[in-house]
Sequence to fold (699 residues):
Amino acid sequence: MAVVSTRSGRLGNRIAIAIVLVITLIFLSPIYWITTTAFKPLVQATSVPPSVLFEPQITPFVKLFTKRAQLTGPVSPEVYEAAPWWEKLVLDGGERLARDGNGDVVFSAYPDRFVNSLIIAITSTILAVSLGTITAYGFSRFRVKGEADLLFFILSTRMLPPIVVAIPMFLMYRAVGLNDTHVGLIILYTAFNVSFAVWLMKGFIDEIPKEYEEAALVDGYTRMQAFFKIVLPEAATGIAATAVFCFITAWNEYAFALILTNRRAQTAPPFIPSQVGTGLQDWTVIAAGTVLFLLPVAIFTFLLRNHLLRGMSFGAIRK
Amino acid sequence: MMTTLSPSSRAATRGWSDITIRNLFVIPTVAFLIIFNVFPLLYSLGFSFTDFRASSKAPVNFVGLKNYTDILADPVIWRSFSTTLWYVIVSVTGQFVVGFGLALLLNRPIPGKGFLTTLLLLPMMLSPVVVGLFWKLIYDPSWGILNYALGLGKTAWLTDANLALYAVAITDIWMWSPFVMLLSLAGLSAVPKHLYEAASIDRASKLYTFFRITLPLVAPILLIAVIFRTMEAFKTFDIAFVMTGQPQAELISSRLYKMAFAQWQTGPASALAYIVLIMVLCITNIYVKYLNKAKER
Amino acid sequence: MISREFNQKYFGPGSITLMVAGILFLCQPWISFLHAWSVLVMLIGLIGFNISVHIPPPEQLVDEDDTGPVSISKTVAAGGGHD
Fold:
């Protein structure tokens, strides 16, 4: 298994690598399929047999950001000539863009939902990581009575099923008017992520030698100065990794967003599926929305690759 | 609640004392979690003993344990629980087999291994609801790629009462096998090399080496992976909810969602939520026990 | 009180068994009697387990002078938490 030097061993190794490559391709094929669908012409997205070869186009993305209507008759050549290139793509597909009174293109709800997702995920990440870091420092460096119980309590809040928490939260938010507000979701996502941030950051801070701060204290720093000037810079990588994990969790969250928002503060996850059932089912547009939504997470996964193990095990397994 | 402090108290004479800093650092988070997690749960514990409906202004009556006994006598909810257990078994077993198998294959020098592993880990980072959505496209009976690629004709994966649960489980396996793989790889790479060398000197068979050396040493980490996935699988909501509406494939979270937010039976739904909560807390306790054990190593 | 040896040998493992059994009783599709009482079984197991983790293990490892920063692993080893 580990040390292979015989010829049969080398052959076995080659076979194993070949199997791994095939499995990787199978694993990635759904992602490949949704990505290509986002660049397909509508007819080819649902054609039988499924089309693998096609001329990529960005029409689905134009449609994703705009409100459209079915064309009733042929477009006059003057109108067609006057339209910008991206509008021509839509006209070619048999639809026209909806325009408001001033003749401006009307945007779809997708950009709003995307921005909501960004605002809520970023704000709650900053709050959760800040709270989590100082609490982790408190647990790491000072004696706290009932430490193990408190840490267990903190982690257990993360394990609660979202629907179970959502029932009372919905009623409480309704009573104080926080339903369908950014603040409401930010608070919930912060609560959800802070427990994770505490556990992960505690592992990172535990690894910073205490001697660093003690030397600073001897040099005349106060505890707070030592924390800000010595510990925080040392923990920077850990903070960044924790922040990315918190961001991804908040970005992907669905159940709370579905129950507690419906319009103004709705994020992208509950919005994207709600488009499946409305009107003409244009899978290319849904695919385009999906690809744009998944893109940040895919990038972050590559940035995070060395910390995934740690994050996924709440800092317990460090390798 | 908290007493003595660290001895490096020279700093205590300057600036804030260590006790102040510790309290300032720890108490806000604990208080925040109590206000936004414990308090709401106590609030719904109260509702679970009443016939409260959030959609009506009717007076709320205390009904004692009736909600709980009703739920435990309700065949539809019972079926949801059984379906959930079956789903957990299928999906966690699948993730274990695929994930651990992949880890065994990957546990050798491979060119570009880091990149390959990261690619394989991609699915678990994606949003479950969006994953469910695009698997719907893949599963489509008439033009989905799956039926075409496997030559299955017009198999209606998500609307067939017998298949829907497995279709959801396959998606879940696709998404979370990488998680088991990631933890298994960590366990496998931690097995000391000299043990394998000793085994090969003794001419131990590969099977013997695997069952006597590899497996026992990886077991603690595998156990963590399996318990964690079991807990998450019991909580599954997003994927199943967007993928299928089949009553035969209804998981307990979807049932709970419908009771609370479609039928507005807030009282009974709170009681069901508490039963689910107790179940999840049981698994969490076991999980944290093994997590701390792994930490000590 | 529960003796430490009894806790480690029977009470701790017993409560874990009760918790797991309760979950299986709740979700099994065959016997309605077990389903009806499953929540009580889980609850007893859960409470028992939380009592059990707060009883220190037989071999004593308590930090005598009670000063200085303490790591979670030490606290757990001393029986202070959810081990």
Notes: Residues 4-77 of chain C form one domain.
